[in-house]
Write a structure and sequence with these properties.
Helix content is 65%, strand content 4%. By secondary structure, it is mainly alpha-helical. The longest helix is centred in the C-terminal third of the chain and has 54 residues. The relative contact order is 0.08. Keywords: Membrane, Transmembrane, Transmembrane helix.
Length: 257
Amino acid sequence: METITTLNLFLTPFQPSKSFPPSKTPKPPSLRKLPPLITRVSSSSSSNGRNATESDCPVPFDQQPVNEYQSLSSSVPFSWASAELPVYCSRLALTGTAFSLLVGLPVAAFGVHDFRTGVVECVVGAVSAGILAVTLSVLRMYLGWAYVGNRLLSATVEYEETGWYDGQIWVKTPEVLARDRLLGSFSVKPVLNRVKLTLIGLAVSLLISIFLLINIESSKDHYNSNDSGGRTVPGVYNDDSAKLFEPDAFCGEPNIN
């Protein structure tokens, strides 16, 4: 019996006492909440730095170069230069076409006496008017972007405090100067390069149009002189030519045919 009792003790599974709860391993503290905290701290510090920089700037809000850049990039027609290339070209083409049809074509048609021989002159005149209108628009864009670019790249800012010609000069802080020059180098200079190339192309087109108009006028004068038998010379008047057309005014004088 003792042997059986001993075997039962060894074969019975061990059950832990209820008075000793199983130990739990402590979990490490979670780190998931740290990035938002860091983000809030960094954003608050950057906003505080920006507010401090803006509060130290005595230049009025509308005269600060960065605000002038934002205002220029959202106004018409200056915003066309900073748009995508297809949008930029289409708007310039639409402007030139509208001006040619609405203004250039009526004016050119009014100056043509014979539409059978002056169709080419009328078309070239209308196209020249459209090119001139686009050239003036692009030139206005260039002047505006060049002004803002110079103020962004400059180390000083000229401003008027009250608008009564009390000019002041403010020296930019290193942070403001670095921001403005970064904006001017990577946002304004590409726009200026595009506008410069556009002005060169428009100037060449305008010169070609003027050259065509001059050739058309000279060919018309040459045709008229040949049609009249070569008896008239444009821009020249003398007695011999007057005698040919007004013989009654030279009665009694020799060499009258």
